[in-house]
Amino acid sequence: MAAQNYLSFRDLAPARTVELVADALAAKRKGRDGGLPLRGRSLALLFLKPSTRTRVSFEAGMAQLGGASVVLTPDATQLARGESVADTARAIGSMCDAVAIRASEHGILEDFAAHSPAPVINALTVLEHPCQVLADVMTFIELRGDIAGRKVAWIGDCNNVCRSWMLAAGAFGFTLAISCPPAYRDEDVGDYATLPGVAWEDEPAAAAADAACIVTDVWHSMGDDEQSKERRLRDFAPYAVTAELMAKARPDAVFMHCLPAHRGEEVAAEVIDGEQSVVWTEAENRMHAQKALLLELMGASR
Ligand code: CP
Ligand code: NVA
Fold first, then answer.
1. By alpha-carbon position, which residue is closest to atom 1 of ligand 1?
2. Where is the Aspartate/ornithine carbamoyltransferase Asp/Orn-binding domain (predicted)?
């Protein structure tokens, strides 16, 4: 049987994704007395781009479950000397029980998954960041209850994190109102644009109106053309999440950002460091959500 990969939020059935987030919340509440269900198992982590949270959350999560992690940076592997992704995948996947990969190109993960006997997890590509959004939805439910029927506003760049949010809207039954400069919407979202639950608003204030959660991310992601940076900062300036914009949302709305953040660009310091911000819970929940995912993919859940 082919390995169950997690390259996209689409790779788990919506009902299973909802259960997985509930499992993660239950395990977080229970604390660390869940035994060591992944004792003897190992996770390879292949980071072709920088990371703080993703790497630490996977390593710490594996340790808490009793397993081990093998962290690989590109220079430390034979990929740097031209070994193919396919041969690398056959070798690593024969020894490890799952492989989490961060790369610019989504195709590298598809190539790896096509040749790896072990499941492959998307630790961020330019297309999606599904592990992030598992943690984000978990954070909303933990702090504000059911997300079904609620309105979430995405303000800013329609990037990898946004695309995973678009898929989450259908799985969890909420509305994702997106406000992004139209030129970037056409450039970046492709067939995700018409997913169930996704709505488009020209004005950030219209997207934010009565939202239970406002989310944003950097305006220039890893892998975006360096030369486009200045243009992007100019084009996205009206899409900053300010206190004024937060005031359009529900009074109990939360502010989310996957981090790292640029204060004074996509978000005002008073918002990300203010009372409505839940970014540190979001960061911690990366570990809890991924523990549930690892149990699922390694066949040790429930
Ligand atoms: N949010 C996130 O993926 O952070 P890192 O880039 O630090 O892993
Ligand atoms: N959109 C950002 C997310 C970083 C975690 C990037 O891809 O750089």
1. 258
2. 149-295
